[in-house]
Please model this.
Amino acid sequence: MTRNKPPFHKLAAAAAAGTLLAAALGACKDRPDARMSDADIDDMPRQSENLAAALDDTGITAQVKGRLESDARTQAADIAVETNNGVVTLEGTAPSTAARDAAEELARMVPEVRGVDNRIDAPHPADDMADSAEAAAREAGESIDDAWITTKVKSALLADPQTQGLKIDVDTEQGVVSLSGEIDSATEHRQAVDVARGIEGVRKVDDTALVVARR
Model:
């Protein structure tokens, strides 16, 4: 029986990959620490050289994952780990550049790792600072606005002829005004709600705790 020979272009591709791998590994062995440069990592084929290498790569991947899961710096990150011929590729997202750098550091601590290709996305430090400052300013602004709204609603209720003598408690959170207390009639109830709604900045009026007294 005559066997079909693999197409020439597949043989050529396989040979080229083998030559490239051998060259990269050879360059790596010339270094005392058996580590690879970034250029070597970029040139490495994205598959294990043989079955033995694949088994070694599986063990490396497990060790790296274990370190990432147990280290507090990287527990909030979502990182996928792949290893080919001792080169660890990290992909995913991290909440900060510090977490991204920590992931690479942990991967390099595994003795069998020859190199790390860090592709983790993380916000720039300047973005982290800007987001924190914006959140703080927004929180402070909301507190100031809420206090201002509460004062304005109380003043308006006291100034209104129909509600000035009523004991109505006012609280505001993120623009939502809550009215509570006991009043004499449904007319006074409606007027109190209308007064609160007329204040600038009020998004909503919650009157569920403002009740009409039973006679």
Summary: Confidence is low (pLDDT under 50) at residues 8-34. The first helix runs from residue 8 to 29.
